[in-house]
Amino acid sequence: MKLLEYQAKEVFRKYQIQTPNEKMAQNPEEALEFAQDIGFPLVVKAQVPVGGRGKAGGIKLANNADEARSYAQQILGMNIKQCNVKKILISQALPLNHEYYISVTLDRTIQKPIFIVSPSGGVDIEEIGRTQPEKIFQLPVDLLLGIKAYQLKKVFQYCFQQEENPPSIQEFSELLEKMYALYLKEDASLVEINPLVVIDKKFVALDAKLIIDDNALYRHASYQQWLDEDPEETTQERLARSAGLSYISLEGNIACIVNGAGLAMATMDVVKHWGGDPANFLDIGGSSNPEKMVNALKIVLSNAKVNSVLINIFGGITRCDDIASGLIQAIQTTSFKLPLSVRLIGTNDESARAMLKQHQIEVFTDMNLAIKRAVMHSREAGI
Amino acid sequence: MSILVDKLSKVLVHGITGRDGSFHTRQMIDYGTNIVGGVTPGKGGTLVHDVPVYNSAIEAVKETQANVSIIYVPEKFAPDAIVEAADAGVELIVCITEGLAVHDVMKINQYLKQKKVRLLGPNCPGVISPGKAKVGIMPGQIFKPGSVGVISRSGTLTYEIVYNLTQAGFGTSTCIGIGGDPIIGTSFIDALELFRKDPETDSIVLIGEIGGDAEEQAAKYIHQFMPDTKVVSFIAGRTAPPEKRMGHAGAIISQGKGTAEGKVEALEAVGIKVAQKPSDIPELLK
């Protein structure tokens, strides 16, 4: 779960990580009221979970009330990378002397948390990596030992040597400890401050990015309130999430219903290979349950772009007969009219094929054949 | 020979009384796996498919001398079940359950490494040595014994590829599903090392996907330690959009890293042929 900036900063403040004086507003009136409290100059920031907000015009500096109102109006309702802006952050403008980058995330290779620090913040870490890889410092954290003091000293000296009025190494150490505590206690997969600035020898997080492990959300009830307002989530993605299915919206028109994430990705790849365009990634998951198939069909059918439906199931823990009965149930209970291409193989596939045959549904055993058929359906529908 | 499991493996099923645990216990027994016991707290003393159920792993291992555990326990309780199995003294733990919190697995992995207990998964289909034993959820009928070692981050995609291999006449020595999570117990390299020492494995199929750099690491390992072994690969997710988690918790192109192109490039750079689609794998092995 990717948090919005204002949400991430709310969590940061719980861990005593300093942020500018700021408030989230949902309409221009609220924005203006908060602006008066905060004082000018201030920054109006679109709250969307995507990069490049500034370039898209979603971040503006306001010097007075008129500007604050007009920027608030302008930014609310903007669409940035397919996300509607429904919230803005009214934030105290702070002097930008030098921008640093700091984050803590999981290093999958060493299977440990790792801090990444750079004195060249303000741009994303990919760009620092491309242009100044020598200015990225990595501090792997041992789960038993925590952050090692000798590493911290080295990075501190390098990063803050040119700062005129540098913060103390204690300040730096405390910042890392706070971020690390947040990372562990909140089950974060990323805690990022970029840019990090120094104001009166103290570190302040001008921006904040926080991603929480979806698998751990069950033990963090406080994030539930924010789950339903992800501006990036499409209608289908929302429906799928509440049905316990894994769904990602794509641009094409061939709906793919597959069991297992790897096969679902490979199915998309092969659809493309045969000249088709997938409408989605949809993994109905491992465990068997006819209900899942019903929900999956409802979700893909709610996407108006879809003109061909492909079902690709390789039964393991999923039983093909459950899939077949779900499919029959779905066809009987919905006004399903789209061309269908079904591929079933694996656990209990024989009885599944017999069930579907009774309902005049053709079943392939070969993945390529089923996909070619779905691509053909889509082409015919497109003519 | 084969690796990890064979006819001598004595398997304990954690969560044997659940829907999936019970179904796959039956399937594993039918395949010929030596299932010696099950664990479900509170259900000790009962039988599932004639297999005795115990209240704890420690009790079960004491009674049955089990040396392999397979975990079907729901995600909230699976981390504890893994640790319990390790403390009970098994050598290999196969975790089928998906959805375990990443931080939990990070900590558990560290603990297991100290104890020298091997974890396979989580979020994996398990392991099968065809004709000998199946400790997992894969459909046994698609496999036949042979000399191809299969290592995969996926479940059903593995079946797809093995099905194609079997159709083309290639048998499998052992097929290992290492799991689709960002942190897993047994990596591609760990599995390659086991296959390298197995005289019955002549060639290897490596099934990867977007996210992380396990395939790149595997390419380096193969280049350095297995230059004479035929290795072919398939990488899923060439059409996956960036910054989106593609079902598997570990399948995400993040900050430009973990793309299918990068992996294909790394593999091809050391002479490993990468298939365009799963059905092309047998042709590349010939």
Tell me about this structure.
The complex is a heterodimer of chains A (383) and B (286). Chain A is α+β, with helices and mostly antiparallel strands and 383 residues long. Chain A has helices at 5-14, 28-38, 65-75, 125-131, 149-160, 169-185, 224-227, 235-242, 261-273, 290-301, 320-333, 349-358, 367-382, and strands spanning 22-25, 42-46, 59-62, 79-80, 83-84, 88-92, 100-107, 112-118, 137-140, 188-199, 202-205, 209-212, 246-249, 254-258, 280-283, 308-315, 340-346, 363-364. Chain A has 3 domains: 21-92, 2-Layer Sandwich (Dna Ligase, domain 1), CATH 3.30.1490; 100-225, ATP-grasp fold, B domain (D-amino Acid Aminotransferase, Chain A, domain 1, 2-Layer Sandwich); 235-382, Succinyl-CoA synthetase domains (Rossmann fold). In chain A, helix 8 (235-242) runs antiparallel to helix 10 (290-301). Chain A is elongated, with a radius of gyration of 25 Å. Chain A starts with a helix and ends with a helix. The model of chain A has no long low-confidence stretch (mean pLDDT 92). With 286 residues, chain B is an alpha/beta fold. In chain B, the strands form 2 sheets. A 7-stranded mixed β-sheet of chain B has the order 3-4-2-1-5-6-7, sandwiched between helices. In chain B, strands 9-8-11-10-12-13-14 form a 7-stranded mixed β-sheet, sandwiched between helices. Chain B is globular. The model of chain B has no long low-confidence stretch (mean pLDDT 95). The chains are: A alpha+beta (383), B alpha/beta (286). Chains A and B meet through helix 9 and strand 16 of A and helix 1, helix 4 and helix 5 of B.
